[in-house]
Amino acid sequence: MTRTGPSSGPTDPEDGNTQETAFTALLEDSAEDLYDNAPCGYLSTLLDGQIAKVNSTLLRWLGYTRDQLVGHRRFADLLTVGGKLYHETHFAPLLRMQGEIGGVALELRAADGTRLPVLVTSTLKTGTDGEPLLIRTTLFDARDRRAYERELLRASQEADLERERLQRLVATLQRSLLPPVLLDVPGMEVAAHYHPASPDQLGGDFYDLFPLGDGRWGVFLGDVCGKGPDAAAVTSLARYTLRAAAVYAPDPLAVLRNLNAVLYQEYKGDDPRYCTVIFGLLTPDGDGFSATLASGGHPAALLLRADGTACYQPTPGGLLAGIVPDAPFTATTLRLAPGDTLLLYTDGLTEARTGGATGDRYGEEDLHAFATGLAPTTASAAVAAVTDLLTTLGDGVDDDTAVIALSVPRARR
Amino acid sequence: MDVSNRNNVFVTGKSDGPVVMLAHGFGCDQNMWRLVVPALAERFRVVLFDHVGAGKSDPSAWQAERYSELDGYADDVLRICRELDLRQVVFVGHSVSAMIGVLAAIREPERFAKLVLLTPSPCYVDDDGYRGGFSKADIDELLESLESNYLGWSAAMAPVIMGNPDRPELGEELTNSFCRTDPAMARVFARTTFLSDSRADLAKVTVPTLVIECASDVIAPREVGAFVHAQIPGSQLVTLDAVGHCPQLSAPEITTRAIASFAGASR
């Protein structure tokens, strides 16, 4: 019956009669017929699964007669073996506990052995005292839907694989931007740790430690703005520039000026790229080392002394490298005596969130207190402690974090 | 990490009673025991927990490699016993947890007073001269069943996985409020459960053992119950007049009676 215009409706005598006739015909459709020939399968079973009642639709789907099923088979007998296991371990327990379970995908085995994917919903009918009496089940033909779900599942599995592939690629690339192992520095213990914020994305932190040929060593640690492949390209350029510049003229201020010139030249224009960096020149000095540190906008290094104190080694006034043509950098010189540990780190540590919703950050004061608690220490113990700290901060660490520690062992007696 | 949080340990019942530890099987969590706990709690100190990967266990404790062996789960059972300083434990393991209990009792027999193996099977797959009831292909089909319910499960698990405190209504929308499992973890547990073979371990059990089977159980048929009984020296066998693999739900009274009379009897 179709309605053709605004005039048609229940008030229209002719149309009203037609509608009434249709309703009457529907009312004569018995509940029994509705049950038997419903567009879905109906099944009533005893609590142990014995089939007590089944509609014609389901019998037609399965190719069984009513006598073959009622009183002779259990619901689980109609399932494939895998479906039986699923029924016993998931479906039946949940139904008993919740009184209902819906939308479960199972496969029926028809009399001729063919399989019919269905979506099954069951409810537990209880008596007035709440005791379960029987189980009512409806089954919907799910052939098309199952094909669609299989396609979704395949797509989701493919996406999982792609993500794994991406993570492997990121991990490999990240490793290529860091030294695979730290070299042994005579008279010094060294340790480093890199904590990526996300396995899906390349980070912009970097460090390296390398000999300069005359007993002196260069060390640097920095943080490129941004993340991802673009940041990685800058990281790579910064790392090789720092190493090459140090061989040519190891004065830390000169090294940073060279880096600034290269980054500025490469990325001037509308896509500026810059980094914060700290560069150290380590020179053997009696029973310890002399360390000259120059920094461009990088968090100050921490010196954890043999006497149990810890203090920042600021280099105020230094600017980010790569942002202006003649960026100023400043340097400081300190002595690493036996029992002293120098800690370089990136701001992933000091900017880690600690307060949840309040937005508190870990901060320099917390780090200073932490370092004081550690001192005196060694490079490996300091890096292990910071690694534990990062684990404790957990999700609060939302940026990459790199740390490198250098310590002069105490003289053996 | 604290083992009690990791395994969502829940202790109830008579605080000075003998310890009865209930271990759930594959497919659900400690809710499986809800119909037998009230009666047991009158006489015993009842210890419930969720295996890692199931129920409200800590998802961050999941390690696919560790939980690809029943030994990983047995190790967790022993850790819980140590942390709670449980002694003279009557360990009741349902389904795959029966074998987890067997492994734990072999490793530290002094920890356990008795073992109750509820619908156990040491090996689900048929082997030369042994009938476990299933072929390798059947088990693959089960894994496929798990896969085809993967989407529904993910939807049910999403709020649990995401732990989104801003949207508690997500939790309320769940159809299945019990037995939530992460699909990836369930896959591993399914493989571990149905492809393990612990037949050779049965003879090594030295603690008094009760085997409880059902008169009709598709997953652990009666010949398997008889096998377990024959292999464990001095074990007792009780056959419940019950259908299905989970008598603690389908026939809680007789299941409770069987557990309690064995657990409460003096050695």
UniProtKB/TrEMBL annotation, chain A:
Domain PAS: from-to ranges: 27-79
Keywords attached to this entry = Coiled coil, Hydrolase
Listed Pfam families:
PAS_9, SpoIIE
Task: Kindly list any coiled-coil regions of this protein.
Answer: 145-176
**Which InterPro entries does this chain map to?**
Bact_Sigma-Reg (IPR052016), PAS (IPR000014), PAS-like_dom_sf (IPR035965), PPM-type-like_dom_sf (IPR036457), PPM-type_phosphatase-like_dom (IPR001932)
| Record CDD domains | PAS (cd00130)
Report what the protein is called.
SpoIIE family protein phosphatase
